[in-house]
């Protein structure tokens, strides 16, 4: 069990950390004096119960720390302060921990997936994004993943706190129901446009950078906007039964192999995210293996999917669990300080269900939405088009019921993406959409939570034809067009520096007055 204990100065974090490790036969306490390199210390002994107090001491180790934490097998409790300067480190470490606890005045609040009762009073917002967190289910571990008694935290006073720190599952019955989505702040958008006119450039000379700066300002509700410091990528992975029908250029085993590659930091998304300063986590929602890493599989719903050609990809209950999981992950990241979210996808065959979703929502024909995916040949293209045709026949019956549509023709990966994207909007957190697969989930998210699209921009245009239809349906114009068709969130992360630039322009450029430059005649 890996736990990040967050809170303000002298809030009771260290006492809580000690409580969490109480009863362990041996507890290793790492201090800066005894342990100059935290990453090395964690890697050298990943089994002994360990207390790290306090994360801020090792800021130089930040780059490799999330990986070392993710690989840690024993009980690990990391104490950190909930401050702006540590936001990125907290986010990165929190995203690989099983639990993040917030300590306020000596009491424990567990605002994310461990919540078993509706969150207590709104007087304890954990970030600027204070829309209510949804009651979400705890991850449903497979029997093999059930924590052994020795992994359960010892009973502590925390159990008397307003939100019990239990991991019992909530009923995900209402996972598909969303409160009304607020729009980004119009008045702030006006203020941002006015500010742009005062900056040392001809009006609109920075083109779409200006639109993006206005958009982020209005999402954050403040002008000039806050710098983007803690962007986070979640790659939702799943296999698809239809892949058995020869609809992909690659074998289905590649999905689990690529999940391991992403978890190890070797995929394109890891490389691009490192450059762009984003954290990456991969979640196995429905890969057709028993994932060796229970943390990656903590929200797993099932192995692969049923036959979308017959409208039986998964059950409604599975669709609800997946949507709830996506919502929980978005909540967890926003609560930990993420200021921009990106969904990615990994799943051999997933361009087939994505084309079915897009075709169903936009009313397009199979031959129009089908694409080459990973590079299918002509014979495969014919099989894929037939599968999409059959999927569309079933999907159309469910076109007015997004959850049923997900259950009939999609899968837990796409359902979790839809929950994640809609919840990001509910939490007033901007999103950069990726390619064809993620955008097909976005169509469903916007149906579940009408208006959510106002919180999203499109990172790029994939070469998949269905992507263009989905973007047009959402009214989004992509930032980049680089002939990419990888998925994983790669197109969105490639566009991230552009969005960050747009924000920096709003913050850092001198005005005509400040620089003594003559304004328009
Ligand atoms: O999102 C896209 O635009 C996109 C376009 C083509 C391929 N992909 C990726 O390729 C895989 C699916 O392709 P396929 O041919 O197996 O259906 C899956 O892992 C996706 O992430 C993704
Ligand atoms: C190798 C490989 C990597 C991928 N990443 C996303 N989709 C993918 C498909 C393949 C085949």
TrEMBL record:
Pfam families attached to this UniProt entry: DBI_PRT
Active site: 488 (proton acceptor)
Bias (Low complexity): 120-133, 153-169
InterPro entries reported in the protein's UniProt record: Nict_dMeBzImd_PRibTrfase, Nict_dMeBzImd_PRibTrfase_bact, Nict_dMeBzImd_PRibTrfase_N, Nict_dMeBzImd_PRibTrfase_sf, P-loop_NTPase
Pathway involvement of the protein, from the record: Nucleoside biosynthesis; alpha-ribazole biosynthesis; alpha-ribazole from 5,6-dimethylbenzimidazole: step 1/2
EC number from the UniProt entry: 2.4.2.21
Enzyme class: transferase
Known catalytic reactions: 5,6-dimethylbenzimidazole + nicotinate beta-D-ribonucleotide = alpha-ribazole 5'-phosphate + nicotinate + H(+)
Highest taxon listed in the record's lineage: Bacteria
Ranges of Pro residues composition bias in the record: 134-152
NCBIfam families: cobT_DBIPRT, PRK00105.1
Matching PANTHER family: NICOTINATE-NUCLEOTIDE--DIMETHYLBENZIMIDAZOLE PHOSPHORIBOSYLTRANSFERASE
The name this protein goes by in its record: Nicotinate-nucleotide--dimethylbenzimidazole phosphoribosyltransferase
Species in which this protein is naturally found: Gordonia alkaliphila
Lineage, uppermost ranks: Bacteria, Bacillati, Actinomycetota, Actinomycetes, Mycobacteriales
Gene name tied to this protein: cobT
């Amino acid at each position: 069990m890996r736990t990040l204990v967050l809170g303000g100065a002298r809030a009771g974090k260290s006492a809580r950390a000690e409580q969490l490790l109480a009863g362990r036969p041996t507890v290793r306490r790492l201090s800066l004096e005894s342990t100059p390199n935290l990453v090395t210390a964690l890697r050298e002994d990943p089994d002994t119960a360990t207390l790290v107090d306090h994360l801020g001491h090792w800021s130089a180790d930040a780059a490799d720390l999330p990986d070392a934490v993710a690989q840690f097998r024993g009980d690990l409790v990391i104490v950190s302060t909930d401050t702006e300067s540590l936001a990125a480190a907290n986010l990165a470490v929190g995203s690989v921990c099983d639990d993040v606890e917030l300590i306020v005045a000596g009491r424990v609040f567990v605002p994310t997936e461990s919540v078993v009762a509706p969150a207590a009073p709104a007087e304890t917002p954990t970030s600027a994004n204070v829309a209510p967190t949804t009651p979400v289910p705890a991850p449903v571990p497979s029997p093999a993943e059930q924590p052994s008694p020795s992994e359960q935290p010892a009973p502590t006073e925390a159990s008397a706190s307003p939100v019990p720190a239990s991991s019992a599952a909530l009923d995900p019955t209402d996972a598909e129901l969303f409160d009304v989505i607020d729009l980004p702040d119009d008045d702030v958008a006006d203020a941002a446009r006015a500010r742009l006119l005062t900056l040392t450039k001809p009006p609109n000379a920075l083109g779409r950078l200006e639109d993006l700066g206005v958009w982020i300002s209005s999402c954050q509700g403040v002008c000039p906007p806050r710098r983007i410091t803690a962007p986070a990528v979640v790659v939702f992975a799943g296999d698809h039964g239809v892949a058995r029908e020869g609809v992909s250029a690659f074998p289905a085993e590649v999905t689990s192999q690529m999940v391991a590659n992403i978890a190890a930091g070797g995929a394109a998304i890891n490389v691009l995210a490192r450059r762009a300063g984003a954290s990456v986590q991969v979640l196995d929602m429905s890969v057709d293996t028993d994932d060796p890493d229970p943390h990656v599989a903590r929200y797993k719903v099932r192995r692969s999917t049923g036959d979308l050609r017959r409208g039986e990809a998964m059950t409604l209950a599975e669709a609800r669990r997946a949507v709830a999981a996506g919502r929980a992950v978005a909540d967890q990241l926003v609560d930990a300080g993420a200021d921009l979210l990106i969904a990615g996808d990994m799943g051999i065959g997933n361009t087939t269900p994505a084309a079915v979703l897009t075709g169903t929502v936009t009313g397009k024909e199979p031959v129009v939405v089908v694409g080459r995916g990973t590079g299918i040949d002509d014979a495969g293209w014919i099989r894929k088009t037939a599968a999409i045709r059959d999927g569309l026949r079933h999907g159309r019956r469910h076109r007015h019921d997004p959850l049923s549509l997900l259950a009939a023709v999609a899968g837990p990966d796409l359902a979790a993406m839809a929950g994640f994207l809609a919840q990001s909007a509910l939490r007033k957190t901007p999103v950069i959409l990726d390619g064809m697969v993620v955008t097909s989930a976005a169509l469903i998210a916007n149906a579940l939570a009408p208006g959510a699209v106002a919180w999203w921009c499109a990172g790029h245009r994939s070469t998949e034809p269905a992507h263009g239809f989905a973007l047009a349906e959402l009214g989004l114009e992509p930032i980049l067009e680089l002939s990419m068709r990888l998925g994983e969130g790669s197109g969105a992360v490639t566009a991230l520096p552009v969005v960050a630039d747009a924000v920096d322009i709003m913050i850092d450029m001198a005005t005509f007055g400040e620089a003594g430059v003559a304004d328009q005649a």
